[in-house]
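My current task is to audit a protein record that another person submitted. What it holds is a sequence and that sequence's fold in token form. Thanks in advance; the entry in question is below.
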Amino acid sequence: MNKFGRFLACLLVLASTASLADAGLLSKSKKKVSTKPKPRTILASKDKLKDTTYKKLEDKKRLNRREKKEIASAEMQAYKDLRNKGYDEVSNTKEAHMLRQYRLRNKKRRGLLRKREASLSHILFPGVSPEEYTSGEEIWIYTDLVESKKTQVPFEVFDLPGFNEVKETKGKKTRRMRRNLGSRLQGYDLKPAPFEMFVMKDTPCTPISQVNIQGKKLRWLRQIIERQYRVHLQLDSLPVLMRSKELNFAVRGYPVGFRSPGGARKELFMYNHFKFTITYQESPEFEGIRITGFDVHPVSIKHEIPKDGEELSSISTCTGFDIENDPSQYVALDVEHEGGVPVVFSYDVQWIKNDLDWTDRWDVYLIGSPDDDIHYYSIINSLMIVLFMTGATATIMIRTLRKDIAGYNEMQALEEVAEETGWKLVHADVFRPPTFSPMLLSVLVGTGAQLGMAVVLAILLSVLKITSTMKKGQMLTSLILLYVLCGAAAGFVSSRIYKFCDAKNWKVNTMLTATALPGTFVLLFAFLNIFLSIAGAATAVSFLTILVLFLLWVCVSAPLVFVGSFVGLKMPTIEVATRTNQISRIIPDAQLVGHPALTMMMGGVLPFGSVCIELAFIMSAMWLHQIYYVMGFLLAVVFILFATCAQVSIVLCYLQLCAEDHRWWWKSFWNCATAGVYLLMYSLWFLTSRLHLVGVLPVVVYVTYMTMISVCFGIFCGAAGFISSFWFTRTIYGAVKVD
């Protein structure tokens, strides 16, 4: 009876479910079943594809090569047709959105072998969900930086006239963005801007301040306009954007002012009215609205100056939404104007509904950025270098070394009296410690290991979506913290090499490992910070930030270096298969081809060449304010760099030993460390050809930072080369029978 009762109960549940579905009470699930997936093609319509191909797209089935070619050809033709008809790629129209989707189709694919479609919002900001706003809710625009591609000295938005800091009440303090260590070092401080706005409520022209610009402030304002500074603002994590449908361009930020295009006397004008346009999305799938766009159109207009006792809100030139640029009404910054230049600043806000999805709102920001195919070509270029070096290394290891080792062992077994030749001749000197500063060598190799481990872990965290390059200062923060936490690796590697060299002054070795590179960089940074503070730059670091860095160094990094050094010194010395003679062997005169200076400069070419293409993107992101987010490519390039350094070092070390030169210690380090010299030379070329910096301080800032980066790059490459050569010499001499 129990079984029969359960069976009846199941039948009743099924019957009730069916009746509810028929009555429409389960319409939500019914709707979910009935919806068809959208075809994956972007521009190709049904009439331009074969029926079987379009059917596969609708059913989301896997396509063969012929069908992919058919779709690509149809999409390319449709793209050309739309562009020939005059449609742009940057506006909020349906056609512009389709064109953007086509241009960015390669950026929206994730996966190594079988790629999946993804939105740029999910790629740039993994795990971030959209924020929804209700009608009438107050929202804030946040100030970012005022910066220029012609100078690397940014300023705060509140340094500009007309922008007064908002008095932060208790409510607005909660809206102020928190800053991490990296954002403090880079000068980012997102504060509420003096614009009042409410969700879905249009705001007509509203004056915010009246300023009389004169004297030093006027001259400074003219200077930053001449140097093409742009103001950057944010709303809902979206940077403010200037678009032009006619010119088909979109650029982040708006200029502080502009120069008159012609005439005998080129005057400077400033923008003092800001027309904000906020686009939003509404859908029954969520409550409220989602912001999908944040645009600005700056206007230069001579507002009526209120008389004494009159309020700003009463001026007649600030009404409605019809304020536009008129050459007869531009605000000229004339230094000869007596009593200064009176300016009234104002803004208006318009909310416009569109059909753009929240996940596609970042598309317009990446229009014009290099395609991901270039990164693939970079990887292929680097892999070609690695394959070439792998072939050379394999030839040495498999053919030459195997033959040499077999011959040497056979001669030893037969006890033939013959003069030894080749690399075996130096077996009694190959592990002789370097005559020049083994302490410095061990410190450099340990520091290189620390740098390499920190960089790899930081990139890995970004690949795993734990950190994001799009969040202000987050990448720099992770690099600093990981470098500090990897201090144990530096102490361990340095102490192991120093102990192998039979040196005794281990305390000095540990202190230098903990302080040499950080101490040098802190001095350079402090020296540079003085000039940035004098110039009033936003990147000038406060005393509190410097104190935090000092405490991280003293309280975390240095103790970890001592822990790693203690572990390394307690372990037994690294064993080798040969004994070192008391008297070193005379080294023959080197030929011109084997001259150390020549091998060092030749050795650094290949490691630098393996990363030079990816380096161009990184430099553009650092100094030209472009977006860089392909951390998976960067991780692959770092591994390729290490493999290239290892193989270059092994090949050059083998050739040096064959020339009966046993002084491979420092040479194996410098053979790859010279890649840092090539990086510095490339950065100087980048300075002269791409940046066009104006002024002495921006050049000093750029050269200082690029010198620090080049030093770190060279130390990492040198450490990779030395460790590889050390492993190589232990391996080959351990396989030979020697007396």
User: Anything to note?
Assistant: Confidence is low (pLDDT under 50) at residues 6-40.
